Amino acid sequence: MKLSKKLTLSFILSILISIIIISFISNIRINKRFENFLVRERENSFDRIHEEINEHLIKNNFRINEMDLKHYALSEDVVLTIKDNDNKVIYNSGMGMGMGMGHGRMNRMHSIPEGNYVETSYPIMDGASKLGSLNIGYIDNSYLTDSAMIFKSTLTQSFIISGFITILIGIIISVVLSKGLTTPLIIIRNTANDIRSGNLHARARVNSNTTEIVELSESINYLGSTLAKQEEIRKRYASDISHELRTPLTTLKTHIEAIIDGVWEPTNEHLDILMDETSRLAGLVDNLKDSFNEEDYRIYINKTRFNITKEIEDIVTAFEPIYNKSDYKLNTSLENNIEVRMDRDKFKQIMNNLLANSIRYLDKNGEVSIGLKRIKQNVIINVKDNGIGIKESDLSQIFDRFYRVDTSRNKMTGGSGLGLSIVKSIVEAHGGSIKLLSKYGEGTEIEIIFPPD
Ligand code: ADP
């Protein structure tokens, strides 16, 4: 059953129950009060009748005027019986015609009135001596007079009318109330369905002052944003990994091709470089397993002490055949024996990305120069090429993820727009900074500064 229907029904049911209880209790209490009141009234009026008849009889020396008494009994709606001291009936007015039935029931006046006939006896006194007794008889239900009946039916009508009005108001209130509850719930349900069907950016915007509903919508929104974040991390992770695996694989492929072509001797030194690259690949794959368990995607730095001059030389040796193959030059100007403490594999990743980028954008007489120096404990690395350069309008976005300059060259090279953003993340994870200077048509220079560890 729908919540709104359920709410309205429960509302109406509780209104009906309360009206029945109220009318029942008030009916009983009012009847009781009414009865007490009438009994008291009757006692008073019987006292008065007794007094008047007593006075009348004394005044007339106990002589009875039957006509007068008959009229009197009729007008008072009672049966009058007078007895002497020997209990002998001297006078009896007889049952009145409309007695005990109220004037509204005159059409039934020949029938016997409902209820018990009751008599109350009063002594007829003349000073201290008792002359006889007066019995005043009446039908016990005679309190159901017209006015009492009208009062009771008016009361019942009032209950029925107020019941209708209350139910009407109740329905209006329950409709408003259930709308106030169900509208935000429907919004939240729709948002949950949207999220379920893959729209992770769907958010519930509810306008409610019910704490539980506000909390529920916050929870759904939180769930949505957490899922969206996870999805984002998953995608980012997948693209970063594929980018990072591609570079060493290309290096390996080029080297093996160079060996097969006979342009690169398979010397121990060269094979060591290939071995190194293979180990790095294996390391990357190993890291995959661990990093997938991470809640957040962050770059984890594993610092070791190593000779960065030597490292760059090895990288250059590895890249030389690739550059030579295209008749490009790879120059170095490295300060000797600089020792650093940083993540060696990540540093290699930086250089691989930069050198892979440069070679893509070189033209005839292409040349790349790598510089390494230490200034005031900072290690500064430069990678400068005389390639096609980058337009000034693209420079501000060059480190953004997936940003690629739209050139015909780029369509051929088929990068993913991730290389520079990964380089920047690694540099920053080491506390360093990166700067890119480029002139369209002249070349590009990247400068990285690592602070001392
Ligand atoms: P990609 O994987 O596409 O190379 P990057 O983040 O490494 O992505 O580079 C982003 C864009 O910057 C590239 O599309 C390219 O146009 C430009 N770019 C990067 N390095 C150079 C460079 N040395 N010379 C010219 N353009 C470059």
What would you note in describing this structure?
This protein is an alpha+beta fold and 453 residues long. The chain is built from ten helices and eleven strands. The strands form three sheets. Strands 6-8-9-11-10 form a five-stranded mixed sheet, with helices on one face. A four-stranded antiparallel sheet has the order 2-1-4-3, covered by helices on one side. It has a two-stranded antiparallel ribbon with strand order 5-7. The two termini are 68 Å apart. The chain binds adenosine-5'-diphosphate. Adenosine-5'-diphosphate binds next to α7 and α10. Residues 357-358, 361, 385, 387-390, 398, 403-405, 410, 415-421, 444 line the site of adenosine-5'-diphosphate.
In this entry the ligands are: adenosine-5'-diphosphate
Gap between N and C termini: 68 Å
Strand order of the largest sheet: 6-8-9-11-10
Q: Helical percent range?
A: 55-70%
The tally of helices reads 10
What's the overall average pLDDT, rounded? 85
By helix and strand content, what is the structural category? alpha+beta
Unreliable runs: 100-112
Give Rg in angstroms: 55 Å
The total count of strands amounts to 11
How does the overall form come out from the CA principal axes?
rod-shaped
Let me know the largest β-sheet. 5 strands, mixed
In terms of DSSP E residues, the strand content is 15-25%
Write the element-wise H/E pattern from the N-terminal end onward. Answer: HHEEEEHHHEHEEHEEHHHEE
